[in-house]
Write a structure and sequence with these properties.
By secondary structure, the protein is α/β, with parallel strands linked by helices. The protein is 26% helix and 15% strand. It has 13 helices and 14 strands. The longest helix is centred in the middle third of the chain and has 31 residues. The two termini are 41 Å apart. The relative contact order is 0.16. This is Alkaline phosphatase family protein. InterPro entries: Alkaline_phosphatase_core_sf, Sulfatase_N. Keywords: Hydrolase, Metal-binding. It comes from Mesorhizobium onobrychidis.
Length: 526
């Protein structure tokens, strides 16, 4: 029974690089996600949910701050998050919670707040301000490796070699086609299983009458693409939807200068440790095998979700706990001959979102087809906790959908941004002959069209999604589509003008003092 005399618990779960279509609750014909589906049956599934940026750090900055990339300005992994920005952990702490982290947040600290020699300046995998860290698990995964060693598993290979097939863990070359050979660790010893175990131990320590806020940040199904039995053979490489792509990678590369750059950049070793060559040169079977492993990784992390649901129920906390399940960004998974994330395709940005609030039953089991975005998470949680959403945030609360209501003036398009500058080595800047401020793109995606605007003079893209689901035919130069291109360019410009940093723009100094809203301070009465 829901307690009405206290705030609810909050369980925010992110699963890194999970595609929004890879849920059986969303209608995927191959992937099986019974525990995510069970959450959707009690909550609301948002079918058209999109990340705000890529890769991890920019995507998470949008999720945690409720601000678009144009305002939080986290452009790449390693771009510092300006200390002036609030975030969901700081907000929860101000409400009396002790927000507790299991995993990672990939937030680079503001160097202006640290001494020049501070070791935190040597890694982009910092912790979002406001979180208490119970179990940090950054990409090097050293705490997990130590745990494996204590269980008698030789983890001397370290990251990423620990994720090679067991018979190749000595560091030799990975020969031939992609295989589904398992790693040295079992299904009960994955990083997700380790992190879940740490959360369950912490959960057992919580007092029944004290509300808690936990953030589980799983790396799966992020590469390296490998998974233990039985998940390594759960899916057939020949099954799954057709890949969205042109007849060849060369045709993809010829379609736009950015695609030519990106498809040439991808190395197999970034996705399968020890593999040599370019991703683009893998054949259909190899892409299918990788996709089958990716599906297996999703099912493996879904099994950990089942452990979490069971434990929260056993602690008699299920009816007092808001659960948010989402991802930071998605995964190309062979579409357009690419793996990973970035660029402008839906495959990189369409992500899952399921929200369950036990106090709201009207919409239980419903699905929403309106466009929602990562920046909506922070204002939604604040709204569900009874707090007014700061007006300078870019996101909107999803609470009306949870109450089975259609919000007024809801957005008719999804937006995202991608910045491909390479500040440390200038690779992209040299390749395109442009400056770092020009290495970017912005997307507006409606139900029928997608318009992509590039900086630096790179040509724009326009896709008619009703006729071209695979995003293969750029009609930006077609005279018949010129009115559509102009309309979407104007809408994209209006979107940027509306959302450019509002931290102080919503305040005004008058003879009676400050009127309006100042970000970071209590609201003023005008």
């Amino acid at each position: 029974m829901v307690r009405k005399d206290r705030r609810p618990n909050v369980l925010l779960i992110t699963c890194d690089q999970w595609r929004g279509d890879c849920l059986s609750a969303a209608g995927h014909k191959v992937v099986r996600t019974p525990n995510a589906d069970a959450l959707a049956a009690e909550g609301v599934l948002f079918r058209q949910h999109y990340g705000g940026a890529a890769p991890c750090s920019p995507a998470r900055a949008c999720l945690y701050t409720g601000l678009y990339q144009m305002n939080n300005r986290v452009c790449r992994n390693g771009t510092p998050l300006d200390a002036r920005h609030g975030n969901i952990a700081l907000s929860a702490r101000s409400l009396g919670y002790d927000p507790t982290l299991f995993g990672y947040t990939d937030v680079s600290p503001d160097p202006r707040t640290l001494a020049p020699g501070d070791p935190r300046l040597k890694s982009y995998e910092g912790v979002l301000p406001g979180f208490t860290v119970r179990q940090l698990l950054p990409e090097h995964q050293k705490p997990w490796l130590s745990w494996l060693k204590a269980r008698g598993i030789d983890s001397g290979a370290g990251f990423p070699d620990i994720h090679r097939p067991a018979d190749q863990i000595d560091g030799g070359r990975v020969e031939g086609a992609v295989t589904n050979a398992p790693p040295v660790y079992s299904k009960d010893e994955t990083p997700a299983a380790f992190l879940t175990g740490e959360f369950l131990r912490w959960l057992g320590e919580q007092e029944r009458d004290t509300p808690w806020f936990a953030h589980l940040s799983f790396l799966s199904p992020h590469p390296p693409f490998i998974v233990p039995e039985p998940y390594n053979s759960m899916y057939d490489p020949t099954e799954g939807p057709a890949f969205h792509r042109a007849v060849s990678w060369q045709a993809e590369a010829e379609s736009h200068p950015y695609l030519a750059y990106n498809v040439d950049l991808q190395e197999r070793s970034n996705f399968r440790p020890g593999a040599e060559g370019k991703v683009r040169d893998w054949g259909d079977y190899d892409f299918g095998r990788i996709r089958a492993l990716y599906y297996g990784m999703i099912s493996e992390v879904d099994a950990q979700l089942g452990r979490i649901w069971q434990a929260v129920k056993a602690a008699d906390a299920w009816d007092d706990t808001i659960v948010v399940l989402t991802s930071d960004h998605a995964e190309m998974m062979g579409d357009h001959y690419m793996l990973g994330k970035g660029g402008f395709f839906d495959g990189s940005y369409h992500i899952p979102l399921i929200i369950r609030d036990p106090r709201r039953h009207k919409a239980a089991g419903a699905s929403v087809d309106r466009f929602t975005e990562a920046v909506d998470i922070a204002p939604t949680l604040l709204d569900l906790l009874g707090e007014k959403t700061p007006p300078h945030l870019d996101g909107q609360s999803l609470k009306p959908f949870l109450d089975a209501r259609e919000p007024d003036n809801w957005r008719e398009a999804a937006h995202w941004e991608f910045d491909f500058r390479s500040v440390a080595d200038g690779h992209a800047e040299r390749h395109f002959g442009i400056g770092p401020r020009q290495c970017n793109l912005a997307v507006i995606r409606t139900k029928q069209f997608k318009y992509v605007h590039f900086g630096g003079g790179l040509p724009p893209l326009l896709f008619d999604l009703e006729k071209d689901r695979d995003e293969l035919t750029n009609v930006a130069a077609d005279p018949a589509y010129l009115p559509i291109r102009l309309e979407l360019a104007e809408r994209l410009l209006a979107w940027r003008a509306e959302h450019l940093d509002q931290s102080l723009a919503l305040a005004e100094l008058t003879e009676d003092g400050v009127a309006g809203h100042v970000a970071g301070l209590p609201p003023f009465q005008s």
